[in-house]
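Incident log entry.

Two folding requests arrived from the same account within the same minute. Monitoring flagged them as a possible duplicate submission, but the sequences differ. Recording both here for audit purposes.

Request one:
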Amino acid sequence: MFKKKLFLLLASALLILAMSAGCRSAAQPAPAPATPPPQANEPATTPQETPPEEPSYPSILNMDSQFPITNEVITVRGFANRAPSHARFEDMEVLNMYEEMTNIRIEWTDVPSDMFEERKNIMIATGDFPCFFWRGGLNSFDEVSLGSLGVLVPLNDLIDAHAVNLLERFEEMPGARDSITQPSGNIYSLPQFNGSLASLAQYSWIHQGFLDMLGLDMPTTTDEFFDVMLAFSLAQSDGEDILAISSRNQGNEIFRQLGNSWGFGNLGMQNTNQFIDRGPDGNIRFIATDPLYRELIEFIKAMWDAGILDREIFTQGVAEFTAKGDRNVVGAFLTNNTPSIIGNRNMHYYVAIPPLMGPHGDRMWGDIQATIQATGSFAITYRAEHPEALMRWVDHWYSEEGSIFLRMGIRGVSYDIDADGNMFYMDEITNNPRGLTTAQAQGQFSPGIGGGLAHFIFDEFERIRLEPEVFEGFAAVENYLIPYSVVLTFTLAEQERLRALTTDINTFVRESRVRFVTGAKSMDEWDNYVRQIERMGLAELLEIYNAAYARFRDR
């Protein structure tokens, strides 16, 4: 309802703006160039004889070299979400140097993260739009609604004409362009792309010290996993009973990761609904009513009944979970791309568990995000007088050179390169004289660390930043990864219905599966549980998802 009110307010604001002078709408198509008349004594050519026209570019663009982007200095307004670790954008050396390189001066409105949604909604309601968003936090509703009203400029042609680096990334990542294309066929925003698969996946972690203490091998099947966890639960560490499996976040990761062993999760983590994936017939299915999902719940319930699961697994937060890790009593946890979530004191004991083969022979790994992250990060509005220049401005961040500049900063100041050609952060970052953390020190130079920026993350840069356990975890699952994580897009009407349907259905599923596992709800009530979900609108939900998936496949 709130989104609908914003939509109506925005439409009214745009009507008022359209009646006032001052802002050119970049969404309006430029007039077709006139054909010059033939010269004297020169025969007119027929349409068939007309040679293809050379592409024309605005005179303000520098077409002779990469930089500067424009032949004269232009000033534009940018709107951004500023992370807690970031300095003001106007004070960041990387962005100031980039202004000098490009001839594009930016008047930043960089809003602190805790105030960003409120400020964004006020901006949408009043129609006071910038020339562009970067780290813009536009959700799918914003994109489709603002795009349909002409506030956001379709980027398709701008990408093809001015985004050579982004086009290279599209070539490297099949399906990437389709995943950011809205049902209308338009692309309204650009995302962050992450080329480091290791940092995108979540892993299962097991205490190698406990395996060694009990003389046990790494489990490879769900049955072996159950037996190993049972042995853990009957043992002690430092005089305290071992909690064989613990977690946080209401235990959601346990259902998701163990679900891979029953063939669930084959569309990855970023399909907008964790209970949606592709069924054996190639269509979208709702996994939480599948008979195999009942088997999964019964397996997890058996672990609960055997005392394998931490009794607080469905209620505790990160602090309680980490405190148990500090006591060195957690046998395994099924979450996170590094074991650091367990706490620094004992994280070195944990190694990644390879994907477990399930009772029906399923062995795959779908607990991975899409390479497309932070959709809605960069968008150009109708207020931009030179959208071509802004597309070239953002395109640099999708190149290797631009990514280094954005993420590493300035060579000789924030990073350097050793004799072997390896980049490393300098003391200004890793041992900051002002006592700043590494993230805070990086955030003084550039917004590149903190996520949500339209740019490309190269794997070699992540190897500098991330713990080696991330890549050890990836080695354990690499051969079992799904091909790619699917990102679906929806029309405004579909989004409105999905918001209502998924809120009720998903909440009911999460609550019910915990009750099944803990015995608060008998498994004899499974059929009633399925019928209740059907009454809540399951058929309509599947119809919407299948329509979106069909569009994705057709593109």
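Request two (distinct sequence, not a duplicate):
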Amino acid sequence: MLKLSFPTSRNLNLFGLVSASLIAILLFLVYVPCVHADSPPSPPQMFYGTVTIGSSPSGSGAIVVAKVGLTQIGTISTNSQSKYGVDTFFVISPTSGAIIDFYVNGVKANQSATYSPGERTELNLTVSTSTTPVTITASILGQADSFLLTGGVLTNAKTLVSSDSRVKLSFQANTTISLQGTQLGAATESNPSAGADNSTLVRAYSFTPSGATFSPAATMTLKYETPLPTGVNESELYIAWWNGSAWEKLTSTVSATNKEVSASVSHFTVFSIRWAPVPATTTTTTTTTTTTDTTSTTTTTDTSQTTQTTTATGTVSANVMGSSGSFSVSSGAVSSATTLNSADGRLSLSLAANTAVNLQGSMQLSVLQLASTPAPPANTRLIEAFACSPDNATFSPALTLTVKYNTASIPAGVNESDLFIALLQGSTWTPLASTVNTQNKTITAQINHFSTYAVLGTVSGSTTTPATTSSLLLSDFTLAPEIATPGATVTASIRVANGGSAEATKNVVLKVNGKNEQQKDVTLSAGKSQLVTFMFNRSEPGSYTVSIDDHSSSLEIKAGSSDTATGFSMPVLAVIIAGGVLVIILMIVLIFRQRSGGY
């Protein structure tokens, strides 16, 4: 016969009291940490898949980068099977709902994704153009040169110049170039078309391949010689391009001092320096002459031509790396000795009284620090570079350029005493006679014109021979992760490519907050490229700047959250506690039943 037994009223009250107490403790343990701890972040999303470049698998070592807008949020390399996120999870965690773009070796993939927290997503990436750096060879009036295009884009600024400086082409960094091949050139056009615009031909050149395009436009500079043809006004010269049936005039700038004409060009064809008489007009001509605070200028209302002389009188304004200054000139000469200093005191220009100054028709000068320059000569290291403008402004006697240096920024293998200032001529750095003051940490040199200058250092045990410029170029800098916890491994990588015709070596230096962290010497054969990787960590929370050459990114080190400190997330911890409480309650029920004779 079945016998049912129930706890007595006293035992039941005790049971209820114990159960209620345990439940209250459970709620306290779960609720309090959730109130006081930071809300846990959304779980990350993981991506994996194959990478195809053009119609072929990418192979190992292709760099896959994930970005939201312009912000990089993750990077990973493909394995030998052209896959990413398989051997190592590709984990990214942007803002919920963000659109994620993917890049392969710096070229945007055809696929994108919307961030879905907690999912593992297969996303096969394809790019329609080759991401392997392509070497473009150039011949400018017989002067050989070369540069690299990655996915049709010129990563670093490049200037091509003929050996006699008669032709110069300057391309900005990140210019998209379409050549329909791997060669470009410029040659003297021996039989240019006459056209029907009554203009006078001064000189003509054929640029090939015809129809090649550039975006943004390149700057073409062509030199001319005097005396010019009879009746030609030097200030009215211009560059024109042949459209197949006529010469089209380009907006041009004439430098009578340097005997050159410049214009922006967006494609290749035949170009020439030309002159056409200013057409007559019935408009009343008004002439205004200004001699205060400007270069002497004559302006007429019927043309946009301006005739400028070098005998300026007035005030020259200057901006030296963010610091404003000025000095007076009278008839083209500095009125009194002047020193112009940068805002941080790292650079100064000193002009003696009565220095003859020709600012190419301007009354302004500036000095800017450059982030990208041609590589330094072999056995040297580049510390920093500056662009002084207006380009080819002249000074007689020469002014004194003084640059302060920081010993922490000097690359390994370079002694302070081996630092020097160099002038950029075309794509070659030419050392100048320089004086190093190791006590004041300064380098000085005399310069008689404005151009691009840099502080270089000779590697110990070698001699400086500025005959050739290193052909190794750096691109596709990545840092992952960009937000990490103390002690976590951070990976910085950059691709080094040799666009020259001979084997070359480069010292690649990783810096954290401007201080050398690690370095590697990379030697590459002509036309080859290599991914260089550095791994490091930081134990102190804070913001860090990580850089390799002129490429940099920000790193945030943040202390880990309380959820991960014990190795358990709050939901898991709550389940463990709840399970323990239920076990205790069941044991109490059994004890009560045994005491009351139940089973």
